[in-house]
Amino acid sequence: MSAEKINPYKNSELGKKEQVAQMFDNISENYDGLNRVISFGIDVKWRKKVVAIVGENNPKQILDIATGTGDLAIMMNSLNPDKITGLDISAGMLEVGKQKIAKANLSDKIEMIVGDSENMPFKDETFDAITVSFGVRNFANLDKGLTEIKRVLKPNGKLVILETSNPTKFPYKQGYRFHCSVILPLIGKLFSKDKVAYSYLSESANSFPFGEKFNNILLKNGFTTATDTPVTFGVASIYTATK
Description:
Shape: globular
Strand content: 15-25%
Low-confidence stretches: none
Largest sheet: 7 strands, mixed
Helix content: 40-55%
Structural class: alpha/beta
Number of helices: 9
Distance between the termini: 30 Å
């Protein structure tokens, strides 16, 4: 089944978009802590790599889609842009992010907005760089989300995506499967008030197209170049595309 068709709540009448917003609202309070535990803190290293790639072009206007609690947005402040905009469908996640931003005295530099990545409230060609970390697999319509990103990106602007991928080599492939199908849902059940959230996150990760397949999706949606760099034995990949 494609990632677009996998929803958090099997019996819900809501569409994927609304379900994803509800799920992240539910887990927003303990999301940061659980994330560090689940990824053994390696996700911080991955984000640093994303920041380095984004910084190559000295962007002044940066958009972070599916910004969540704002980890990547806060890290990108080190690039000294004029402004960073964080967009997310979950008001609960953004509330946590706003508190972190205020604590870091960055409220005048980083703006957090509730919004839909497939229908963004920005003019054409607004941003020099756009990032999405662990968010594209939650898009209800992947093609629509990517063409909307292309619309608000300036010509020669850079899109950098960090997303889960599946290791293909033994024993990482087997270890990752076990981690996703057993450990992740178990941690979710034990520590999260939303019992199905972490099962959805692992299920959507396993079914999302990665590597060359995702590069081709980027090219199909009008980006001129698309490359992927696997990180940590291929459990995640960083995609770089230009307009």
